[in-house]
Amino acid sequence: MGALQSLPGRPEYSDLAEKTGFSFEQIGVLHKRFKQLSHNEETLRRDHFNEIHDLAFNPIRAQIIEAFFDRRNFHQDGEGKVQEIGFEEFVVVMSHFRPPSDHMTEEQREKTRREKLRFLFNMHDTDNDGTITLEEYRHVVEELLSRSGTLEKETAKCIADAAMLEVASISVGHMEPDEFYEGITFEHFLKLLDGFEIESRMTIRFLNMDTTTLCK
Amino acid sequence: MAPLRRSSTLRLTGLLCLLFLVFFSRGFASHDVVSEKSSGTIQEDSHSQANSTAHEKTFPVLSFNYEHVRTPFEISLWILLALFMKLGFHIIPTVSHIVPESCLLIFVGLLVGGIIKATGEQPPVLDSSLFFLYLLPPIILDAGYFLPMRSFTENIGTILMFAVVGTLWNVFFIGGMMYAVCQIDAAELAHVDLLSCLLFGSIISAVDPVSVLAVFEEIHINELLHILVFGESLLNDAVTVVLYHLFKEFAHEQTITVTGAILGVISFFVVSLGGVMVGVIYGIVGAFTSRFTSYSRVIEPLFVFLYSYMAYLSAEIFHLSGIMSLIACGVIMRPYVEANISHKSYTTVKYFLKMWSSVSDTLIFIFLGVSTVAGPHTWNWTFVIFTVIFCLVSRVLGVIGLTAFINKFRIVKLTKKDQFIIAYGGLRGAIAFSLGFLLDNGEIKNLFLTAIITVIFFTVFVQGMTIRPLVELLAVKKKKESKESINEEIHTQFLDHLLTGIEDICGHYGHHHWKDKLNRFNKTYVKRWLIAGERSTEPQLISFYNKMELKQAMMMVESGSAAKLPTIVSTVSIRNVQTKGAPKPSRAISKSREEEIRRLLRANLQKTRQRLRSYSRYELLNDALEDNISEARFRKQREMERRMSHYLTVPANRQETPPVRKVFFQPEHKVYTYDDSESPRGWASPSCADDVSELKETPEKPDQSSTPRANRDAELKPKEQDDQGDQLKVSRCLSDPGPNPEDDEDSTFLP
Fold it and tell me: What keywords tag this UniProt record (chain A) (predicted)?
């Protein structure tokens, strides 16, 4: 607890707390982690993320890191990428993974769902045109399978194609043979993952206690 | 009118059979005395007249010897009875909607018991060793083998809380309160002491997996509640075993010592963890064995059953928790065994387990009914009524209290409705009865047995019958239709990795981190050892995808007619997705690429996991020609499917994409002369015209031509052709020179 008092910028926290819904303790913990990752600098860059040892095994590592530098996730209606982020952006991105609070109205729950699905959508839609095209989806599946050995490109392609068709069938239903399905729009994406219960699945537990010293 | 009459005649027949069976067995019982005497006399005669011939003794052309086959005969009769009843209830729909099957079966048991008693015989009682050794394991193995691991592990904390703490609470509450009741002079129960009450509490508190399964299966409740109640009923076995033995020992000694209590706590950990360890050991050995069973596929299912049964028995030797051992064995063994065994063996395992558990379940309930009629009863109003009341009260209090505590740690909280269902779903069953039966004989035993039976009846009849309307009334979420969606699977995997990554960035080792570590460990070390061949490196997404595609294929083949279409009908085809910017199909493909593809396909293709009426071709290629005829039949069915896929506007994605399926379709197209009039493909796409022309256009190989849907999936087409040729050649080599096209066409053409 003593460590918390020494953290600077308490009034800043209340802004952040209000904006993102984290508690003071949680923001304090995240700040410590931020400092640890950035080696006490003010901003985080991509190479800082690359230093995290555990991430090395993650097949979608690149996409996760990109998501932190994507302006669309900063809730400021921006677009494009940045080269470095400050603590505020870090917390905002993290807030996408907050568990839903106990007393949420249906409306708030829906809003959280949209937010989380928007985050996922942004991760897939790399060229920022508002749709996930077949190429982008293929890339997603390829990355997922990238860790598992030999030539998987063909199968990845088939899987992505099948998935795309499923989306098309669900969202559009009936298409003339010469019509073309552009790509998955955000609305289609919402419809697709309707039964997925993403508001409870896409969460991690943010601790009030600082455990960063216990692990690397 | 006709079906009603039929069903009532069926019922009548069933009843007649029933009576016949009963009288038959009774008749035999009295017959064997006679036959024994007669055989005795014949022997005497032959002795005394050793050398003489042609005495009054004639050679018995037809003799009667029932004793010889008595036991298996009667067992078979009982099982037949159980099966007839099961069949009967499903034929008459009206009753089974209101009353759950378990109630009906107990009722039948009562009836049969009554009949047997009326004829003066002593009806058989549910013998504890029969129950624990033969009737219970199949049900538990079936449950454990098909346990949904994801929801089980996600909720393991909650389940353990309910199983351990909840059961402990129940035991002490019921035991204590019943002792208080026994103190009331009016009840005349002063002879029941505290230890006996606690023993009684330990018997009656455990939620019974058999009853839970029987009732919950029919109400299709959502997965979370199902796994919570069911998981609890499985894991509380350890607690029950320990407490039962503990209190039995204490009741013997008539004292409770502190060391005894401490030893009891230690024993709990030993029993549960020991049971799990025994199961894990057998599971690993079983998985390892299955790696080599490709040499003799027929006995594969037996390994699964025997290893699991041995795990159960081994645990029982040491008084460890047999149920937990069985579950652990099934859970550990399953992923590796499924990757190793053939499709047919998998189907065998699945259906045998279902069959045995179904028969066991039926028999258990019938015997419960019969035992009720049979056993000596000591009915004591106070004791019984209070037992029932306290069981309910303690369950409700326990659930509410525990949920308040657990909800602090859960992300998805348990609502009041959930709590109600969990409390209401705490059914008691045959395990309680059998445990009670194992008590030492005495007046107390009969008293307890009566109370136990009453509680069981109450829970099964009253709670079992009312739970369905209550579920409707409270609008509890039902089990959502599992539409296996490739997108959901992709995103499930994606989320797993994403959350692990975020946890790593956050710097705290949470649930996802450890799960990921376990998966990686599993992939790098364990799978190498326990899974044969190339399957060991197959990623889960690919397995899922292949599984799904083949399931769709089989579904279409089996539905066999336009009437039974899958629900989503859309005209979206792969062209719609890919036309834009798709490069013109290039016919030339390198040999090495083709090799790669073929190897990839063979390596990655998972044997179909769904009902496969014919034999899988891949099976044949790998399993060395099990049945050549079936291969031809399979090809016919593929052709059928292919035709239907054009005829019906089913979601094109199910047929178009996998090169796998295409590979095996195309040859048929050429084998059977294909003309437009045959299959009204006009609906599907105007590209038909193109296709047909292309059919004639490019005879690259003698047997092949370009695939009909050349524009659709550009890159994959050319490879497939070569692939087809080779595959076809291979299959041709392995089998008879293929079916006669004309014959096949006639026999398989769909009306």
Answer: Calcium, Cell membrane, Cell projection, Cytoplasm, Differentiation, Lipoprotein, Membrane, Metal-binding, Myristate, Nucleus, Protein kinase inhibitor
- In this structure, are residues B438 and B199 in contact, taking their beta carbons and an 8 Å threshold? no
| ipTM of model | 0.89
Single-letter code of the amino acid located at B397 = L
User: Which residues, in sequence order, are CB contacts of B230 under 8 Å at separation 6+?
Assistant: B143, B209, B212, B213, B216
Q: Which residues contact B187 (CB under 8 A, 6 or more apart)?
A: B181, B380, B382, B383
Count of helices and strands (H, E) across chain B: 34, 0
- A113-192: CATH class: mainly alpha
Q: For residues B208 and B564, give the distance between their C-alpha atoms in angstroms, rounded to a whole number.
A: 39
Rounded Cα distance between B24 and B67, Å, is 14
On whether the CB atoms of residues B397 and B177 are closer than 8 A, the answer is no
Q: Name the residue in chain B with its Cα closest to that of A151.
A: B600
Q: What does the pLDDT look like over B448-489, one tens digit per residue? A: 888 899 999 998 889 888 888 888 888 877 777 666 677 787
Check: CB of residue B59 under 8 Å from CB of residue B29. no
Tell me, yes or no, if A104 comes closer than 8 A to chain B by beta carbon: no
E strand or H helix at B602: helix B591-604
| Band (A127; pLDDT cuts 50, 70, 90) | confident
* Residue listed under structure tokens 């083998």: B145
Please tell me the distance in Å from B285's CA to the nearest CA on chain A.
26
- How close B615 gets to chain A, by Cα (Å)? 24
**A84: three-class secondary structure by DSSP:** strand
Q: Determine the residue of chain A that is closest to B577 in CA distance.
A: A181
Contact A120 B494 (CB under 8 A): yes
List A residues 66-85 in contact with B (Cβ-Cβ < 8 A).
none
Closest in B495, B600, B685 to A201, CB measured: B495
Cross-chain CB nearest to B498 (options A60, A170, A176):
A60
Give the Cα separation of A16 and B298 in Å (integer): 65
The architecture in CATH of the region A11-99 reads Orthogonal Bundle (1.10)
Q: Which residue, A181, A157, A153, A155, is CA-closest to A167?
A: A181
- Does the pTM surpass 0.90? The reply is no
Which segments within A65-160 are labelled E, that is strand? 84-85, 131-132
Any A CB within 8 A of B220 CB: no
Amino acid code (one letter) for B263? L
Cα atoms found within 13 Å of the Cα of residue A3, Cβ hemisphere only = 13
Phi/psi of residue A131, nearest 5 degrees = -135, 150
Rounded to an integer, what is the distance from CA B613 to the centroid of its chain?
A: 20
Indicate the domain borders of chain A: 11-99, 113-192
**Integer Cα distance of B666 and B280 in angstroms:** 46
State which amino acid sits at residue B426.
Answer: G
Which residue type is seen at B232? E
Minimal Cβ distance to A166: which of B487, B537, B578: B487
Distance in Å from the first CA to the final CA of chain B: 31
A132/chain B closest Cα distance in angstroms? 12
Instruction: Please count the residue pairs, one from chain A and one from chain B, whose beta carbons lie less than 8 angstroms apart.
Output: 200
Beta bridge partners of A131: A185
The residue extents of the domains of chain B are 128-357+376-429
Inter-chain contact B659–A154, Cβ cutoff 8 Å? yes
